[in-house]
Each structure stands twice: as C-alpha cells, then as structure tokens.
C-alpha cells in the first residue's frame, strides 16, 4: 500500500480498537487508485467528534460543527470527520444542518462524484457502492445520484466537476454535463470565495484548455465574476494558458485577454475577492506587460520593476504569442545592475546635506534620485568619493 496510507493506518486502528469504524475517504482514495501522488488523507468515522477527542490526546477543533476534528498523530495531522448526512440545503449552498450518522454508506452517498465516494479500510479493502472504480477506469466524472438534484443541493459541485476535468483530464458524463447546462444559473448563489478556490484549481490543472472550454460551452462562465458575455475571450485565453505559468501570471494573462489594463484589472480582480496583495502583484505584472508592448527592457526599467515582476511580465508576454519575449533578458539585465535598491547607494541624504551645507528639503530626495539614475545607467560608480566629485561637477 501507499506509504502515506501505511503511516496513517495506526489512526484508523486506534479508532477501531475503541469500537468504531474508520476509513480513508474522498480524494486520497481516488488519487491512490489513479496512481497519483497523495497529499493529504481524509478519514471518515462512525465516532462522534467528542468520541474522537477522547481517543487521541492531541486534536484541534476546526470544523467541529461539521463533524471534523484534526487529529495530530506521529508528526502528521489528519482530518477526521464523523459520518454524516446532509439535509435542508439552503439557497443551493452548503447544508444548513448536518446530521451525524453511524453508517458509512449514507456518508458516501452525500459525496459529490462517484469517483469521490469511495472508502478504503486500513488493510486496503475498497468500499465502492456507486461505481467509482468503473468511472476511474473510463475516466468519467458523474454525480452520485441525479445530477439535477445534486447541483440544486450545492451548485458549487458544478465548478468542482469542471475543475476535476481539468486536473484529471476526465470527461464529464452525459447527464451530468447536461445538468451543468441547465443548472448553470444556480452558480449565482455561490459565495465568490468558494468559486475562486475551484477556479484556481481549474486554471492550474493539466487540461485547463478543455475545462475552460467546458465553462464557456455550458454557460457556467456566464455566472462567474467579470466573465459574463466574454465567452470568446475566455476561449482564446484558454488557448494561451500554459501549465507552467504561476497563478499571478495566469490572472494577468486572463485580465489582459479580457481587455483590462493595469488600472481596470483591479476591479475585475476585486470582484473575485482575491487577496489585496495578489491583486497588487497582478497589477504590477500588467503594468510591465504594457511597458513591454512598446519597448524593451533597460537597466532602468528592470531596476524599477524588480527581477520578479519583470520575469512574470515576460512569461505572460510569451504566452500571448509575442516572439520577442525571453525571460532571460530581464534576468540578465537585473544581474548586471550595480545596485538593486536605493538602500545600496553609497551615499545618504545626510551626506548630501553636509556636503552642500544646506538645510534638508525636497532637493535631497531629488538629488539622490539623480545619483541613483546615473549609477544604474552606468555613468557613475557607486563609490562615495566619486559620487561627491560627480555632484560637485554637475551641481555647481
Ligand atoms: P483535492 O485533491 O483537490 O483535495 P478532494 O476530492 O479531496 O480533491 P476536497 O475538496 O478536499 O476534494 O473534498 C474531499 C471530499 O469531500 C471529496 O472527495 C468529496 O467526497 C467530498 N466533497 C467535497 N466537496 C463536496 C461537495 N461540495 N459536495 C459533496 N461532497 C463534497
Ligand atoms: Mg482533499
């Protein structure tokens, strides 16, 4: 068995010894059967959260109202969730009420897709009541039960279907696909943060091209922030998306593909409720992308942009099909810079005040800026005495 499961097996054993059932469930079982790497294993159990807390000395409550306890064991942490059924879905979102139950089958039934509704015992026995293994064999994504009902219960599952298509290169089963088309409008009810999390995974998937096409073809993208009426733009963005791009670069590419510049992109990105820091980084990439569409990198511009943003912009430019793009160019220029920031200047404002024997004022900053520019462009060495000499010749 996979070493990740072997390491976690004692957790199941302890729960079983205490008289309850426990299984590996969800994505880890699916990925194991797919022969993919397993990151984190989720555990489902018949024990209640309080019972789990009674078994393990080290636990953390994160989602206890949903039945989840984090168990810390042998240097790792595991999400242990009580078997549950979900009822009374409100507004097509998460269930408003969670009932803890003692039956594994009922727990598997509330899961989204057949490939995600399998369990595995500690000795590797697969429990697969809905044909998950068959779906994995035929590379198929299908809901557990009627897709119309399942999407009505929780519309986010529609985005999950498409992001799994992107990550696994699976096909969405006919009925499930049809339900994406007819129920797409339900996405309006879903919190943007949840949509963003799934969309990020979709963009990072190996088959993002197909997935974005599905988003556009089914009409799901009509109900995503800033993408209504942008089907063509989305499809051409899909064709440019390169799996090697970083998340910020993908969003810069998408923003540019939608016709945003670094100023108008901000409200688009804010409508996704993205973290402010990330919005700023994407804005910076767009700014330098625009710069690159009119001129090449210079020592001055890589100094201003910084190696990171310059490289990001160059990679986005390459994705847009611009043959002149070469991320090594700004990297090389940056490496040859005599200084990387104002802090590295061999003079300070105080030096200037002393040398000129004048009270401080805006002139200090202005002059330091001139010194900085001359150093960056290679006209002046970053040495105190030389800077002084240069100032005396130029400022008298
Ligand atoms: P990943 O590798 O991306 O973590 P995953 O399948 O583990 O994939 P999670 O979001 O971690 O996905 O969810 C864990 C499991 O919980 C899923 O495999 C599925 O069984 C169930 N699940 C998650 N979200 C839903 C949902 N919206 N509706 C029903 N079941 C869900
Ligand atoms: Mg998971």
From TrEMBL:
CDD domains listed in its UniProt record: NT_ClassII-CCAase
EC number: 2.7.7.72
Binding-site list for CTP: 27, 30, 111, 154, 157, 160, 163
Domain tRNA nucleotidyltransferase/poly(A) polymerase RNA and SrmB- binding: 170-227
Reactions accelerated catalytically: a tRNA precursor + 2 CTP + ATP = a tRNA with a 3' CCA end + 3 diphosphate; a tRNA with a 3' CCA end + 2 CTP + ATP = a tRNA with a 3' CCACCA end + 3 diphosphate
Ranges for domain Poly A polymerase head: 22-141
Coiled coil: none
Residues reported in the UniProt entry to bind Mg(2+): 40, 42
Keywords: ATP-binding, Magnesium, Metal-binding, Nucleotide-binding, Nucleotidyltransferase, RNA repair, RNA-binding, Transferase, tRNA processing
GO molecular function: ATP binding; CCA tRNA nucleotidyltransferase activity; CCACCA tRNA nucleotidyltransferase activity; magnesium ion binding; tRNA binding
Family according to the record: Belongs to the tRNA nucleotidyltransferase/poly(A) polymerase family. Bacterial CCA-adding enzyme type 3 subfamily.
Subunit and partners: Homodimer.
Name used for this protein in its record: CCA-adding enzyme
């Amino acid at each position: 068995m996979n070493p990740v499961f072997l390491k976690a097996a004692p957790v199941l054993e302890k729960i079983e010894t205490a008289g309850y059932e426990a299984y590996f469930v969800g994505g880890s079982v699916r990925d194991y059967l797919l022969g993919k790497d397993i990151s984190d294993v989720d555990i489902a159990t018949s024990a209640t959260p309080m019972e789990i807390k009674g078994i393990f000395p080290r636990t953390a409550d994160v989602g206890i109202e949903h039945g989840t306890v984090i168990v810390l064991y042998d240097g790792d942490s595991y999400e242990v969730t009580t078997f549950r059924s979900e009822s009374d879905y409100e507004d097509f979102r998460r269930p408003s009420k969670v009932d803890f139950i003692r039956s594994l089958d009922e727990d598997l039934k509330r899961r989204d897709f057949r490939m995600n509704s399998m369990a595995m015992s500690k000795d590797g026995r697969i429990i697969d009541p809905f044909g998950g293994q068959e779906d994995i064999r035929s590379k198929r994504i299908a809901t557990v039960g009627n897709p119309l009902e399942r999407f009505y219960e929780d519309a986010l599952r529609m985005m999950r279907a498409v992001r799994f298509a992107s990550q696994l290169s699976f096909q969405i089963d006919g009925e499930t696909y049809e339900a994406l088309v007819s129920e797409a409008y339900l996405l309006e009810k879903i919190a943007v943060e949840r949509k963003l999390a799934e969309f990020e995974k979709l963009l990072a998937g190996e088959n993002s091209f197909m997935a974005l096409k599905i988003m556009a073809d089914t009409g799901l993208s009509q109900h995503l922030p800033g993408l209504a009426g942008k089907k063509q733009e989305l499809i051409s963005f899909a064709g440019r998306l390169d799996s090697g791009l970083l998340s910020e670069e993908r969003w810069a590419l998408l923003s540019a593909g939608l016709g945003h510049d670094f100023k108008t992109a901000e409200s688009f990105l804010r409508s996704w409720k993205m973290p402010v820091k990330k919005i700023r980084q994407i804005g910076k990439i767009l700014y330098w992308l625009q710069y690159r569409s009119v001129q090449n990198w210079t020592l001055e511009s890589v100094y201003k942009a910084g190696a990171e943003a310059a490289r990001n912009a160059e990679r986005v430019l390459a994705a847009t099909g611009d043959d002149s793009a070469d991320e090594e160019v700004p990297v090389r220029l940056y490496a040859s810079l005599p200084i990387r920031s104002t802090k590295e200047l061999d003079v300070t404002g105080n030096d200037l005040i002393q040398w000129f024997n004048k009270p401080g004022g805006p002139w200090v900053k202005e002059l330091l800026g001139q010194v900085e520019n001359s150093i960056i462009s290679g006209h002046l060495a970053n040495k105190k005495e030389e800077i002084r000499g240069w100032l005396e010749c130029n400022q008298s």
